[in-house]
Amino acid sequence: MDHRLSLAHIEQAMHIIDPVFLHTPQYRAEPLDSVLGCRLMVKVETVNPIRSFKGRGASYFLASVPSGTRLICASAGNFGHAMAYACRSKGVHLIVYASVNANPLKVERMKDLGAEVRLHGEDF
Prior knowledge:
The chain is an alpha/beta fold. It has one domain: 3-Layer(aba) Sandwich (Rossmann fold). Helix content is 39%, strand content 17%. Strands 3-4-5 form a three-stranded parallel beta sheet, with helices on one face. Strands 1-2 form a two-stranded antiparallel sheet. β3 (70-74), α4 (78-90) and β4 form a beta-alpha-beta unit. The longest helix has 13 residues, at 78-90. The radius of gyration is 17 Å and the shape is globular.
């Protein structure tokens, strides 16, 4: 049985994902090595336009979505940012549903990235 996670799929994704989300800096967390009993590496996931790892997944997903498609998602922030960024670069219309209590700065950023944001409900 083939597993979805494979080196071939990872290599394929490297050619599909927007380059701004590739080559994330990695550093060894030496103080934690002896505590955890292994060599631990950490990735800095804030060095990209949306400051989140979620851009890679959104970029990969949008690669299979035809231009002109309309998408809807629900998000309180980072996923909405990722989808808005990827949709804008692909020319795909995006509606993001968020709670009326969502962080206003995150909502504005989704709008700035081109998403139509609809606030509905008390809780995400």
